[in-house]
Specification:
The chain is an alpha/beta fold. The protein folds into 2 domains: 1-105 and 262-360, 3-Layer(aba) Sandwich (Isopropylmalate Dehydrogenase); 129-255, 3-Layer(aba) Sandwich (Isopropylmalate Dehydrogenase). The chain contains 12 helices and 14 strands. The strands form 3 sheets. It has a 10-stranded mixed beta sheet, with helices on both faces. The chain has a two-stranded antiparallel ribbon with strand order 6-7. The chain is globular, with a radius of gyration of 20 Å. The model has no long low-confidence stretch (mean pLDDT 96). The structure holds 3-isopropylmalic acid and magnesium ion. Magnesium ion (MG) binds next to helix 9. 3-isopropylmalic acid binds at residues 89, 92-93, 247.
């Protein structure tokens, strides 16, 4: 089996963490006999420096042509003063839209080995395993009209929170199907007590639930959900929500496991095409220091194996290797405490790749 992977390393620590992901994919090739072919393309600030655009057409076509996209991170302070249209973040929104990646899967899993790394009490977070399904191509992020204009003699900024039925329906299906493969509990998060967009969201999700009678569906307002995630995160299995609420709640949930450096993500369309990236950003201040945690990127490769290539054996092999290496006591500085052994980015990648090769 041959798969084409578009490599969009991006800015800051992006290239460094992708390097470790490739090491792990090399081990997977070796172990399972799959073949991965890579094609690199520029995205974010490095693309802007190269051609004046954060998301060049050539990058979109390489991404479209590949079976999956593996992305590092985009952004650097040096682009902070650029106009919004050419800022690196714009490239992320652009590629999501161009590839129709409407379903964003963000797991927040607390590993037993890392209970101490969280700022929350161990008894609150032990065994937490949540999957956030965030709608990614609609909502106030993309709604029209939007802009800054003079209205009644003063400037006003506005965006439009809008959800079409079909958009809600398709993300609801992804969420119910995700729940079916897990503990069959789905919590839909909205603000239906205030927002019309949310009232429609709730109606449509409820309608879709009739097709999944085995899944227990609950609804929660977003403010309450933000509170419940910290108060008692174990009550959640799968959460489905819109783009902006999902953006906020997924950052909040990422602090349950304690380090952003541990959390992968997948952004999927209707076909099997997907984009896989760590949820952390480009951390330009950490670049070149060999200290960042590559595990989020490595676990993103596991999600690629599972969701785009249907290779559960390879996905589990990567996830188990990560757990074994943590169990043996190796830690990057972000997750180090007590008498664990601190290793750098490249050593962590080596250890995980090695573990894949030696395990059966
Ligand atoms: C994320 C990020 C992006 C978002 C930004 C960088 C555009 O926060 O992936 O969560 O808001 O979606
Ligand atoms: Mg975000």
């Amino acid at each position: 089996m041959r798969y084409k992977i578009a490599l969009l390393e991006g800015d800051g620590i992006g290239p460094a963490v992708i390097d470790e992901g490739i090491k792990v994919l090399n081990a997977i090739e070796h172990k399972f006999g799959y073949r991965f072919e890579y094609e690199k393309a520029l995205i974010g600030g490095c693309a802007y420096d190269d051609c004046g655009k954060p998301l060049p057409e050539s990058t979109i076509s390489i991404a479209k042509d590949a079976d999956a996209v593996y992305l590092g991170a985009v952004g650097d302070w040096k682009y902070d003063s650029l106009p919004a249209e050419v800022r690196p973040e714009k490239a992320l929104l652009g590629i999501r839209k161009a590839l129709n990646l409407f379903a964003n899967l963000r797991p927040a899993i607390v590993f037993d080995e890392l209970l101490e790394a969280s700022t929350l009490k161990p008894e609150v977070i032990k065994d937490v395993d949540i999957m956030i399904v965030r709608e990614l191509t609609g909502d106030v992020y993309f709604g029209q009209p939007k802009g800054i204009e003079v209205i009644n003699g003063e400037r006003a900024g506005f965006n439009n929170m809008i959800y079409y039925e079909k958009e809600v329906e398709r993300i609801a299906h992804v969420a119910f199907q995700t729940a079916m493969k897990r503990n069959k509990k789905l919590c839909s998060v909205d603000k239906a007590n205030v927002l019309d967009a949310s009232r429609l969201w709730r109606e449509v999700v409820t309608g879709v639930s009739e097709r999944y009678p085995e899944v227990e569906l609950t609804h929660m307002y977003v403010d309450n959900a933000a509170m419940q995630l910290i108060r008692n995160p174990k009550q959640f299995d799968v959460i489905v929500t819109g783009n902006i609420f999902g953006d906020i709640l997924s950052d909040e949930a990422s602090m349950l496991p304690g380090s952003l450096g541990m959390l992968p993500s997948a952004s999927l369309s209707n076909n099997e095409k997907g984009l896989y990236e760590p949820i952390h950003g480009s951390a330009p201040d950490l670049k070149g220091k060999n200290i960042v945690n590559p595990i989020a990127t490595i676990l993103s490769a596991a999600m690629m194996m599972r969701y785009s290539f249907g290779k559960n054996d390879a996905a589990s092999s990567i996830e188990n290797a990560v757990k074994s290496v943590l169990k043996k006591g190796y830690r990057t500085p972000d997750i180090h405490f007590g008498n664990t052994q601190v290793v750098g980015t490249t050593q962590m990648g080596d250890l995980i790749a090695q573990e894949i090769l030696i395990s059966n």
